[in-house]
Amino acid sequence: MDSGHESWLALGWAADEATRRGRPLHLIHARTSSDRARPEGVDAQGERLAPTGLNAAVAQARTLAPGIEVTAEATDQTPVRALTEASSFATCVVVGARGRGALVGTLLGSTSAQLTVHAACPVVVVRCPAEIGEGRPTVVVGVDGSALSSAAIGYAFARAADRGIPLTVVHACPSRAHGSHGAYVPPWQTDDPAAAVEREQAATAEEVAGWAETFPDVRVRRHVLRGDPASILVDHSRGAELLVVGSRGFGGMSGRLVGSVSQAVLGRAHCPVVVVQTESSTQRSH
């Protein structure tokens, strides 16, 4: 937690999720080195946060999530260390895309980039509330055939089941013209566009089949599209409650999360984004 607007958006999302899943909610304010040089409870903008602001956050969380256990701590650890350590016992870590104090600067900066790579559980990035328009909302997951892609699919199925809404599975086949912002594009994805899409349709159906048996009540829509992966995922985030991606992979989600495709998704998505780091990290989050 910090005094930034998006941190409070993250609190609201976390409170809703804790209520939905019946899990306790723990708030963390990690003071930066510059914070520690100031009088207790005053941040860079002169706004009081800890302990007064943290107490206010706890009160807000308890209002939003009645009946849910809410705890909080203020720590002098670095934001990355505090949140990474907390991730070892959490079902997910929720952060705002921008902020002050615990998350200085944009999420695309070093603190959040490190968190999305090193956290031991899925990281939820709340840049804005979901822009739910007309029609039924959905959970969207980006897939590419990697092990992390399978973990992301499992997480997305579970969240769609929690919410009682459909799941949209999106596989983007980058062309040489798009190339995932310079990322490596396997030759088999660029030889014959129609053949490549047909192969990926079959692969995506197979990738989803096992999870569909585990979550038989979730209606699934699959889309295999050719084009820029980041733009395709951002487009599908319109009207979605949640966008789920793996932190590493190949093909449609090529490269590390800190690469340009994932940065673009985090910076442009129209709904909260979940980053799944490892296959094992999702086991306790289902």
Secondary-structure blueprint:
Elements: H1 5-21, E1 25-30, H2 33-36, H3 52-64, E2 70-75, H4 79-87, E3 93-96, E4 98-99, E5 105-106, H5 110-118, E6 123-126, E7 138-142, H6 147-163, E8 167-173, H7 179-182, H8 193-214, E9 220-226, H9 229-237, E10 240-246, E11 248-249, E12 255-256, H10 260-268, E13 273-276
Written overview of the protein:
- The chain is an alpha/beta fold and 286 residues long.
- It has two domains: 5-126, Rossmann fold (3-Layer(aba) Sandwich), CATH 3.40.50; 138-285, HUPs (Rossmann fold, 3-Layer(aba) Sandwich).
- 40% of the residues lie in helices and 20% in strands.
- It contains ten helices and 13 strands.
- It has helices spanning 5-21, 33-36, 52-64, 79-87, 110-118, 147-163, 179-182, 193-214, 229-237, 260-268; strands at residues 25-30, 70-75, 93-96, 98-99, 105-106, 123-126, 138-142, 167-173, 220-226, 240-246, 248-249, 255-256, 273-276.
- The strands form four sheets. Strands 3-6-13-10-7-8-9 form a seven-stranded mixed sheet, with helices on both faces. A two-stranded parallel sheet has the order 1-2.
- Strand 7, helix 6 and strand 8 form a beta-alpha-beta unit.
- It starts with a helix and ends in a 10-residue tail after the last strand.
- The model is unreliable at 41-49, 99-109, 177-184 and 250-259 (pLDDT under 50).
